[in-house]
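Collaborator request log, item 7. Partner lab (contact: R.S.) asked for a structural prediction of Pyrrolo-quinoline quinone repeat domain-containing protein to inform their binding assays.
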Amino acid sequence: MTGTEGFVLGVDLGTSHTVAMLRHPDGRTRPLLFDGRPLLPSAVYLDTTGRLHVGADALRLGHAEPGRLEPNPKRHVDDGTVQLGGADVPVADLFAALLGAIAREAVATTGFLPPAILTYPAAWGAARRSVLTEALGKAGWPAGTSLVPEPVAAARYFAEVLRRPVPTGSSIAVFDFGGGTLDVAVVRADGPGTFSVTASGGADDLGGLDIDAALVEHLGKSLAGAEPAAWQQLTEPATLAQWRARRRFWEDVRGAKEMLSRSSFAPVPVPAVEHAVHLTRDELEASADPLIRRGVAEAASVIAAADLKPADLAGLFLVGGSSRIPLVARLLHSELGIAPTVLEQPELPVAEGAIITADQPAALRYATGTAAAATPTPTSPTKHDSPPPSTDTRADAPSPVSPAGPATSPAGPAAAPAGAAFASATPASSAPGSAGPPSTPQPSATPPSPRSHSGSQPSTQPASTQPASAQPASTQPASAQHASAQPASTQRPSAQHEEETDERLRSAPVDPWATGEAAAWHTVAGPPIMAPSSPSMSPHTPSWPSSGPPSSGPPSSGPPSSSPASSSPASSSPASTGTPSSRTPSSGTPSAGPPSSGTPAGASSTGAPSGALGPPHQRGWTPPAPPAAAGTTGRRRRAYLIIAAAVTVVVAAGAVLTWVFWPRYGALDYHALSDPRRIQPIVPVTTDFSDAEIYRDRAYFASVDSTAGGIIGVVAVKLNSSKPLWSSKDGGTAYRWKSMIALPVGLALFTDFDSNNGYQRRMAVLGAADGKLLWQRTLAEEDEVFFAGDTAVVADRKGKQLLGLKLSDGSQRWSLREPESSSSGRSKVLTVTTPTDLGGPATVFGRPFEPDLADDPRIVQIGADKSARVIDANTGKILTDRQNVAQPTDEVVAHNGRLIVLQPSDQRILSYQLDKLGEPKVVYTTQTADAQLKDVTPCGDDRVCFDEEVGYDGKTASVIALDVTGDADHVAWRYKLANVETIVPVGEAVVAGTTSNDTTLIDGSGKQIWTRPGEAARLDGGNLLEFSKPLSKSPDDPALSGRHLGDEAVPLGAFSDIRSDTCAWNTSTVACVAEKDFVLQRFAG
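Returned to partner:
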């Protein structure tokens, strides 16, 4: 490694989410995880004790008191302060709270705060950057922290991680399309590892939230007429329950948008409406098209401002979560004529690219209290002709007609203690809606945020308490003052006035309930990271002043401010089992910053905090506890623990929902096939058996030489290397070899029948670590082997029993006799598949290369007596059974907790629950005389697909998708396709092969995407690997293409002398047996 050694931290402080990547001393780069997720919501919440919460905790607490939540602090960088709960909080303090959470997670991982690089938008001048430098000081980050423009970091990732050629003097464009903003920049390569921004621009009011608003407006056009009462409640909520319903509706719209990045349709539940409405990808693209075209036009103007044409660029790199929408890449490609590069996780490259800049000595570094030099003058920002719609779903949003005057708060018995700003965000029951009536042009729009910067507060916000003894207001630095508003102009602004300050034009939609993944970190034993004293920070800085009228009492009681999240300082409880944070530092845990001897910064010698998360830059300041009556301390502490535990559960539930709705299968970053990395076999490759398998980060290759007694040689190699991990001939010899399967413990090899040895076969398992023989077993002619859990289940036909063998050594764990039957037929055994198994790479026949054997270790046995029993493969225990279910010859599928049975006698399909095998549900009955059903295949979490034809005539066949959760005959779609032979699921789409060697892709709504010769295989639930011709055991040169469902295929190039029938693949690499050796080639990532 060159440049900076050891741990290095890169941080992308985003509008909606913040990402922190950590490079380890061995060169590995991994994201810091916040509650198990790499995205930290940029939301900040101020509680009644003056404590700032960030991430998922902030979002959850904001549900009860939206007026105390700021979901997008970065959007207010020009405003100096943001009003939260009646207090004016400096924007730098909001940034500092986020940076403090990142630092504490880094300290928990490494033991200290590593050298760090923080990114910022290229259009930010000195004034905006000074807010970042102030926040770094307040958060206690060292003065050596570097600042790097976001597009420069993205360019370093593009060139050095993706290894895309960017010759010196050439330029790339970075299109950063996030949740709240669009930033476009042209970056020039000035030399090896050196980049500079030559032009920049974008739109502060264009992002994923604006697309959400467009979708809500689209849905409103139909709901306003069909369900006027429900729509009015969503656009003009009057009660807290209606505000919550509105929030859920927006979350569901966002989830549908994300799902449409990988599916062709998505349901949207509507509160108070019985049935969900359905959005299609066409509707998404029609709604988003004007917005995305605006972004494309902005990109074109920035490229032109750099005196370049799109064809002059060395690349177009898409980053930011909203770039996942397929239409973004498609429009950029069609309008600019250059194919963009977009990753499966486009939120991460900027932070990882920032780490690479640590190796560059010229990286910009901040000095506490000063601003760095300005960046190159950006292009003129794109502006709306009219104010953009707002997506503010807060209950305290003011009326667009006439806000009421200041509200009064009933007097309380005592004033709030100094340093704490108490406020309540109680919406008045008579408050007007946040949107006009459904007939208005923008039914979903809401007015701008009610947090005023002029010192007034809407009527829905009770006044905060400000005692007479409060300290005077702090003096704002020059960087935090309001810039004067400027009219729209087509001229390039000067470096001193490049930031648009017109609130009407600068405001982007705000949705404070964006899904989140991270929690605030605050415990008594783990104080916030304090900045050392500095001349640039006044020791007399007071707590945040209230801008509302004074009140003599605490917050008023009553709904909804009496909810636990708003009326109790739950978040200030001591560290305990119920603390929401996932990691609680002990008293001896060093705080962030360079390690030193003695007491860690921010902690006393005993580990007690020297300050709390009030004003983080005020040394020794501790917010006093709320007044409590004598004898109530223990009860109150218990109450706090209960509340903290409840918040933890709710945050965890929110993280689960985020995972469910987040796009799981974005477009892979396809590129031309790399030059083959060749691996030499230890047994010559001949016309005898040869094969390849990929499992996790390695490939296994096998070849057999019949002239040497049929010995099999296996080579294992890392996917990123051409040097073998090991080579082995321990598999032995055989008359003929049949197949091999990669397993968690290694590689299972199977011989073919040997007529000279009673048609017996042999199974040999080689260890993953060194290729040595773990165990082997002789199999009879009709014996079968199934893998589930950590067990190999052998169906011993001669012994009429099932045997459970331990995968690691082949020792017998259990045996189970087959059900007694007068029939001479043999039983059928099925492994239970899960949605995960259908979302990974698979052969052209649908066999997963790497099934998760542990996610459902059950097997199902269909006996000759028509019984069914569910068995735990690891223990041999019969979990449940039932008589008269199916014949062993019937088509049966066990998937996602269900047993699906095709009954040939009456051509109907039944569904059983695997956990109890109760009464079946008839989910399909054919309505056509002489119809035949076949090829039943799971094709979604709760779907099965099958082929229906009339009178055994393949020309009459149709592929049918059946929703097994609905009522009888709940057909999701039906597509007529003659001579169907195979059905392979790809998410909820299917690839259907025919006897004429044609392949048809049918999307999740039953629409044909294409029909073409050749074959196609699943890479994941949203991507395919397409072959131009049928797979062959002989050396051949088929062309390959990669395709994301719904997008055009990306040509990858052609193989050269590859035995394509032997190939295995994952989402980035293909492993094949060539004419004389083995090859690895990358095609994505």
